[in-house]
Amino acid sequence: xxxxxxxxxxxxxxxxxxxxxxxxxxxxxxxxxxxxxxxxxxxxxxxxxxxxxxxxxxxxxxxxxxxxxxxxxxxxxxxxxxxxxxxxxxxxxxxxxxxxxxxxxxxxxxxxxxxxxxxxxxxxxxxxxxxxxxxxxxxxxxxxxxxxxxxxxxxxxxxxxxxxxxxxxxxxxxxxxxxxxxxxxxxxxxxxxxxxxxxxxxxxxxxxxxxxxxxxxxxxxxxxxxxxxxxxxxxxxxxxxxxxxxxxxxxxxxxxxxxxxxxxxxxxxxxxxxxxxxxxxxxxxxxxxxxxxxxxxxxxxxxxxxxxxxxxxxxxxxxxxxxxxxxxxxxxxxxxxxxxxxxxxxxxxxxxxxxxxxxxxxxxxxxxxxxxxxxxxxxxxxxxxxxxxxxxxxxxxxxxxxxxxxxxxxxxxxxxxxxxxxxxxxxxxxxxxxxxxxxxxxxxxxxxxxxxxxxxxxxxxxxxxxxxxxxxxxxxxxxxxxxxxxxxxxxxxxxxxxxxxxxxxxxxxxxxxxxxxxxxxxxxxx
Length: 526
Hints:
This protein is mainly alpha-helical. The chain contains 18 helices and three strands. β2 (about 135-140) and β3 (about 150-155) form a beta hairpin.
């Protein structure tokens, strides 16, 4: 996973708090005219966008990210709740930095990573803070005011990898921190435990799912259940397993991911060509298409478009460039073998365009199986699998109905992705879990694997115009996936009630309105 680096924060001696945050010499009696007329200190006024403190932390933090740092004020805790405790700003920054690093390494969108970091900092009253996220770097800065110098912490995220069980654990920890009751030391200890590798599924099951993903894609594209279709299914499983082992062998020699994708794509193309040379009329093109479904960097392209729509243009450009390099590796690995096969008489296309929903019941079952295999490969928690499969079935059904009704495939893909994004957002909110596990695997059946294959085949056959058109359509479908998911996310927020401003808590007799981060004393202990 990512290599966590020690941040370069320099703690300074604490000075006196600003005048507006100093302890008043004497507290007025509750309900008295003096108490009613006394102005509320800036630090305990409701923060713009914080709203109801019982609302999910991401609902409160996302509006704050669009608010200037100087205008972000701390909201009071609800009546009866205690803040997590006063802590050193350097320790809080380190905690927020590690949270952001783990989320970014798990594939979370840049805006959501910044929201989580901001939620951690505000929960411990380290304010004002400004998190910044790029593709490979996470940083957060804290400006305590005139008495002390600012603090800045940053680290690099070197090797991102999808691990949705780890993502869910970090999400739950941020939720507990935002609601109070977790000290900084306890949060650090729990994050260290999260860093330890823990697979939810046995290694053999993960390897089997790698092959089942490609096999299910052959049923999804072919739409047949005869004996030859099952032979193609078994061939795709073998090709995917061989590609996975070759990719692991290349990875042991520390070669870049580009070369891993090149060698992982070759076995499917080789087996597809071999099947086309027999007299059983087996469709080798379906085997190659199934291999493409297992290798396409679909989610990085969706995440790149989401970051671009949210205004994180640098991160979006970096993620898009990474996805293009990985896709180029897949294209080179497949086209090299295709060129040899086509020049030697291999018949790799029984059709000139990808098939639609020719066998809806079978293709729906194949889409669910593909999603299940994809979710296991992403180490999704078993408790989330039913919701993920339901979301996938709804998305593929929507696409199949629209495609059979004559809708343009790009439009059908975008609308189906919008439904997946909307329902995934609502499911995640209902379960109090992150959105990515409910959306990523459910988008697997909608990836443009067959469109990309026919574009590459046209290039090999010497028809570059058709090839460019096919690859352009594949890119357009990937963009439709991204826009649909993002639109579904925004629509989900419209279905939910807007956060209400937090009421000002009535002070207890003899209490003093002092911000928790400015109280004198040692670190809070349980």
